[in-house]
Amino acid sequence: MTLDLLLTNAALVLPDVGVVPGAVGVRDGRIAALLEPGTTLPARETVDCAGRWVMPGLVDPHVHFGFGSPETDFLTEARSAALGGVTTVLSFHRSADPREALPAVRDRAETQSCIDFGFHFGITHRLHVETLVEASHALGVTSYKIYLMYKGQAGLSKGFTEIDDGLLFAAMQQARRVPGAVLGVHCENVEVIPVLRDPLRRAGRDDLAAWDDQSPDFLEAENVHRVCYFAAKTGCPVNIVHLSSREALEEVRRHRRDHRADISVETCPHFLTMTRDDPSGPLAKVNPPLRQAADVDALWEGVRDGTVTTIGTDHVGRKRETKTALWSATNGFPGLATMLPSLIDEGVHKRGVPIERIAALTSATPARLYGLRGKGQLAVGYDADLVVVDPDLTRTVDPATLESYADYSPLEGRSLTGWPVMTVLRGMTIARDGRVTDSAREHPRGRYLARL
């Protein structure tokens, strides 16, 4: 057969298996052949990878598109993702009624996105719970998120008045009725935060570490305990999203052991590479907060031993002007384009974590957890979502080159080693040598991934 694309002389990164020399053949948007070194087939385009890694395209299960520039986020942020080797994202959708609101967002995204995408439903009131099964089947969504940080007074500023433990428990009961469903939870005990925050502000604290002091690790761990306990009682699979601390990770281990609850754990690149003392200051303000160096070490141990299930960026593309002072700064920051380089730089080069372990947490496992068929593996029949990575390429992070609506990065000015040099979506090259291709700009072909 004649292939559409052949990547030769590659080091194939097989998630949680290893790295083997070989080649990848692509035809009709799918992986058509995995070839031994030196074996070849005729192809319309052949790329010599010169011994570089070829990995499955990354699946980022945690992005917030629409929080920067709602009308254009799927244009700019998808391009930023492509530069970072990310070929699939799952974005959080919050609306009064997703049955009415999501179709328009989905349709606009299909005209803009150069990568594939899906959604999670944000559950913020009882109508969402009551209509969860119906909306899931109608829109092909099987994953959801409860924001425990928006309980009580903290939720009023967002217009949320119904978020409580009852809503959490009821959402678990309903999610169990959806095949393959998983309920993500943001775990922070927001009711205690003011007790710790107000003295800090009166003392004039405005350093980044104050954000950790006002919402310390034990407030995350306490909420993780509650969610895991309810998950065991309801039998609902849950995912602790953006877990940030050693103490919270230990709670997951305990509940998995004692209650055999179905608990997944997601952490983020920033919790694996940055601490509360980061010099970027308010640019690195995020919920949950950046923690101590000991927490970074504990999370890497969770990556190694399998306690951590997936890695997601929690990407949000807002402007620098929203991040000027700690207490007024918006939460979150961009991270799609720098996820893989930061994980390779810190994990592979500095800590000796095998690249196949990182590939598992950024491709195979999120694809499996969220029911993304055909994604996340280098295997015949899977979508030809591929990223060629030069593990020795060093670049300085420059927000001006990252395509995001955001005009900053908390990593700006830092040198990272290990960058994507080519990104392929279903056989189409969408980024190469640090640039989004003209075809991806002019004719974005990202697809909506319905999972039911």
Please identify, by name, the CATH architecture of the largest domain: Alpha-Beta Barrel
Helices, by number, come to 15
Query: CATH class of the largest domain, please?
Result: Alpha Beta
Helix content: 25-40%
Structural class: alpha/beta
Provide the number of structural domains: 2
Intertermini distance: 34 Å
Shape: globular
Number of DSSP E strands: 18
| Percent of residues in beta strands | 15-25%
CATH-derived topology of the largest domain: TIM Barrel
Largest sheet: 9 strands, mixed
What's the CATH H-level superfamily name of the largest domain? Metal-dependent hydrolases
Pfam families: Amidohydro_1
Domain Amidohydrolase-related: 291-427
GO molecular function: allantoinase activity; dihydropyrimidinase activity
Keywords: Hydrolase
Identify the notable features of this structure and list them briefly.
alpha/beta, Urease, subunit C, domain 1, single chain, 2 domains, TIM Barrel, 9-stranded parallel sheet, 9-stranded mixed sheet, 452 residues
Structure commentary:
This protein starts with a strand and ends in a 10-residue tail after the last helix. It contains 15 helices and 18 strands. Strands 1, 2, 3, 4, 5, 15, 16, 17 and 18 form a nine-stranded mixed β-sheet that branches. Strand 16 (415-425) and strand 17 (428-432) form a beta hairpin. Helices cover 34% and strands 25% of the residues. The chain has two domains: 3-53 and 383-394 and 416-442, Urease, subunit C, domain 1 (Roll), CATH 2.30.40.10; 57-369, Metal-dependent hydrolases (TIM Barrel), CATH 3.20.20.140. Helix 1 (73-83) crosses helix 2 (98-112), helix 6 (165-175) packs across helix 9 (217-234) and helix 7 (193-202) packs antiparallel against helix 8. It is of the alpha/beta class and 452 residues long. The model has no long low-confidence stretch (mean pLDDT 97). InterPro entries: Amidohydro-rel (IPR006680), DHOase/Allantoinase_Hydrolase (IPR050138), Metal-dep_hydrolase_composite (IPR011059), Metal_Hydrolase (IPR032466). It holds the Pfam family Amidohydro_1. Keywords: Hydrolase. GO terms for molecular function: allantoinase activity; dihydropyrimidinase activity. Its EC number is 3.5.2.2.
